Every structure is written in C-alpha cells, then in structure tokens.
C-alpha cells in the first residue's frame, strides 16, 4: 500500500479540549489491538505488519505532535501521550485491548497499562526499555540538535535516524522521513528530552497484565540487557529476542513480528477463555 492510500484511510476524532487525533482503524474483528508508533513516526510505521494481521481489528493512532494529529505547543510527557489514547479508546468504546508499542510507543503503552488496566488486557513492547540511556553526544542527539526548519526529508541524517540492520523498502522509509520532517525542530528536541528523562522503574512493577517483550539482538539504541531489566520488572512477562534485528524490528521482519503478535494474542484469549470456563463450572 502506498503512503497516500494509507493517509486516505485515516479518520479524525475530537478527543476534547479542541484536540484531534488521527488514526487508522481496520474495524474487522472483536480481537482488538492498539498499535502505538515511535518518536517522529506515525501510524504508517505499522503499515508493513497490517497485511499480516487481517484477522484482528487494528487501531493505529498518530500520537500528538505526529502525523495528522493535533500539535500542541507543550505537553509531551508519557502521561500526555497515554491520555490521548485513553480518550481515543473511550470514544471508540474499546476496552481490554492488546496494546503494543514501539520504542517511545512502548513506553507510552507501559504507562497506559499501569494507569488504566481496565483498558489494557495485554501488553507488548517492541524495542522498549525502562529508562533510556541516550548520551547527549550520540549521533542521534547531535543530529537532532542540529536540525533547522524547514527540515529536509532527504537530509542524510534520516539515514542514521531510520537505520535498520536488515533491508527495508526504500519507499516506506522515504514516507517515514517525510512524516518526520513535518515535525518542527523544536518539537524534535522537546520530545527527545522527554524520552531521555523517562524512568518507568517505579511504574512498570504495578503492571499485572500478561506482557510480551520483543527485542532485536542488534538494537543500537536500547540494549538486550535493558530489555532484560524490563522483563525482570514486569510480573507476567515473556521475552523474545530476534537475532540480528535492530531497533526497528517490525520494519525489518514484519511477517515474523506479526506472527508473534498474533500467537500471543491467541494465547491470551485462550487463557481468558479457560478461566471463564473454569469459573462457570
């Protein structure tokens, strides 16, 4: 699917306070997954996995400040991002969903699972961690610090920003770069600082929902050891390490990641059915 076709599928909903969220909703099943993208991406981030999850209803929002959603001057904490999703799920009448997030989206998903367990039936993190350790002198931080408006989507910086360990379709990455270039440089810096200051160490242990950690063995941003720390803090979690994958594993191996998500959702649904059955006997 082309990016313009994806954009044409986006719906817009007023979540209150004059704020509008854009989202794609496949709306085909009562098996619901909310997919939360990473920093500077949009719902387009999940366009490669969507064809492999046709048996599920996928709700894929553009986070505030990203894609076609509202872009406030401030309020970019994990709580702010999570609150938008709470309002979106409320407007759509969705509860007890599987919520999966990538990178920043993983941290948002964890905050959502901790604060609203009634909405999150199961949690999946893709390239997530408890506490990012991103050095201010890293190529990523230096690159973001040097951005100036208008940002050129063909700037060589995006080769670093969207770096993948395995080949990814060039047109897909170019569309991501165009989305990212629409975000003002000041918001890049603002949100990056929010990410660097995040610490979920005291939030994650209260998450009791079934959880799955999916992490690339070659993730250059959040290490496997950081993912291991996350697993130790999540009470009901399993971890799958994808050999050779980098930070953007759902772009690098979309079919495999989709299969893992589908199998996890099926297992959770089966376990819930078993519990319901035992209670009724």
Summarize the structure.
By secondary structure, the protein is an alpha/beta fold. It has ten helices and eight strands. Helix 2 (78-92) crosses helix 3 (104-115).
Task: Tell me what the structure shows.
It is globular, with a radius of gyration of 18 Å. By secondary structure, it is an alpha/beta fold. Strand 1 and strand 2 form a beta hairpin. An eight-stranded mixed beta sheet has the order 1-2-4-3-5-6-7-8, with helices on both faces. It has a single domain (3-133, 198-280), classed as Rossmann fold, CATH 3.40.50. Helix content is 40%, strand content 17%. The longest helix has 27 residues, at 254-280. The chain starts with a helix and ends with a helix. Helix 2 crosses helix 3. It has helices at 3-8, 78-92, 104-115, 139-145, 157-161, 170-181, 185-197, 224-233, 249-252, 254-280; strands at residues 11-16, 19-25, 32-36, 57-61, 97-102, 120-126, 211-216, 237-242.
Feature tags:
17% strand; AB_hydrolase_1; alpha/beta
Tell me the series of helices and strands, N- to C-terminal. Answer: HEEEEHEHEHHHHEHEHH
Task: Tell me the quaternary state.
Answer: single chain
CA(first)-CA(last) distance? 48 Å
Biggest β-sheet description: 8 strands, mixed
Helix content bin: 25-40%
Strand content: 15-25%
CATH topology: Rossmann fold
CATH class equals Alpha Beta
Report the C-alpha radius of gyration, rounded: 18 Å
Helix vs. strand class: alpha/beta
Task: Pick out the low-confidence regions.
Answer: 275-281
What is the CATH architecture assignment?
Answer: 3-Layer(aba) Sandwich
Number of helices: 10
CATH superfamily: Alpha/Beta hydrolase fold, catalytic domain
**What's the shape?**
globular
Number of strands: 8
């Amino acid at each position: 699917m082309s990016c313009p076709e994806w954009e044409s599928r986006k719906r817009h909903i007023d979540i209150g306070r004059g704020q509008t969220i854009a989202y794609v909703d496949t709306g085909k099943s009562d098996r619901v997954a909310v997919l939360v993208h990473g920093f500077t991406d949009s719902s387009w981030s999940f366009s490669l996995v969507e064809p492999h999850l046709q048996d599920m209803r996928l709700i894929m929002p553009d986070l505030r400040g990203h894609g076609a959603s509202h872009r406030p001057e401030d309020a970019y904490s994990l709580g702010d991002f999570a609150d938008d999703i709470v309002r979106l799920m409320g407007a759509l009448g969705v509860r007890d969903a599987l919520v999966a997030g990538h990178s920043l989206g993983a941290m948002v998903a964890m905050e959502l699972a901790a604060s609203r367990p009634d909405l999150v039936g199961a949690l999946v993190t893709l390239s997530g961690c408890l506490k990012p350790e991103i050095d201010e002198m890293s190529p990523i931080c230096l690159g973001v610090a040097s951005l100036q408006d208008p940002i050129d989507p063909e700037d060589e910086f995006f080769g670093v920003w969207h770096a993948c360990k395995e080949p990814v379709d060039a047109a897909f990455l170019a569309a991501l770069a165009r989305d990212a270039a629409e975000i003002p440089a000041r918001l890049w810096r603002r949100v990056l600082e929010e990410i660097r200051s995040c610490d979920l160490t005291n939030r994650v242990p209260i998450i009791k929902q079934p959880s799955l950690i999916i992490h690339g063995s070659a993730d250059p941003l959040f290490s496997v050891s950081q993912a291991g720390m996350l697993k130790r803090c999540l009470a009901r979690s399993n971890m799958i390490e994808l050999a050779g994958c980098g930070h953007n594993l759902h772009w690098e191996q979309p079919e495999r990641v989709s299969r893992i998500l589908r199998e996890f959702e099926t297992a959770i649904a089966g376990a819930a059915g078993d519990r319901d059955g035992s209670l009724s006997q």
